[in-house]
Amino acid sequence: MKKILLFTLICSASLFARMNVVASYPYLGKIVKAVGRENVKVKVLASAKFDPHFVIPKPSLIPAIARADMLVANGAGLEIGWLPPLLKRANNPKVRIGAKGFVDVSRAIHLIDKPKAVSRAYGDVHPEGNPHFDTDPHNVLPIAHYIVKKLSQLDEAHASEYAQNFSRFSAHWKTYLRTFDSQMRRCKGKKVVQYHELYNYLLKRFGIKAVAAIEPLPGIAPSSRHTMELISKMRKQHIGTILQDPYHEKKTAKFIAAKTGAKVIILPHDVGAVSGTGTLESFYNTIAKRLCH
Fold it and tell me: What is the arithmetic mean of pLDDT over 163-192?
């Protein structure tokens, strides 16, 4: 009788135990929670207030990684400068790169802007392609589906629940996308300049042309010469919009705007990057409202 009771308790504990999931960025944490719901406990490593390329690998993040059953990363080289040292110190075989619990969501995305050559002469390029696919809300569902697949493999006891959660989330998100797309249609044909190539997936989908970037090369600060050439180009092509992310310096964009009459629009790059963007919906709503109104 005692053995039966013990077995029952063990099974019950297994059924009700939550998966410890670590997500590299806030938007991933929101997606994991949306499809994992009560079966997951989520810890986000990076703050949306800072450059996603250069997160400080704080020792305080190590315990969460050490306890994790799954680590969900953006991938495409975005975390390359800060996540590997944390993984090494956490020494958790479940979530090391290549392990079953290490989930690289870039594998669910068709990456764009793949460089023809990789060299420091081309700036801080990403060999796999542009890693900033989260700014297009149409990429949320393939990412969510990929995460559900991985959750179900690691936590088979709750696989049916993950599938049900995804079904509900998918229906909700498809409805949301119809509203978002209708807002973005007003922007089609617009020409913009952006500081860093953060919004290429979004701009490409909705027919908005990114004419140039304030950075002469990815990760390279703008020089005076490049800035003046950009001002000349904007005047000739009558470009009236500059897309500025929250974390890069803003003086150059303001200077260019003063010389060209362009408007500087600060767009969030992740959930929580600016005030009022604490959910997936509010993150994308802010992008549509600021860009297309």
Answer: 97
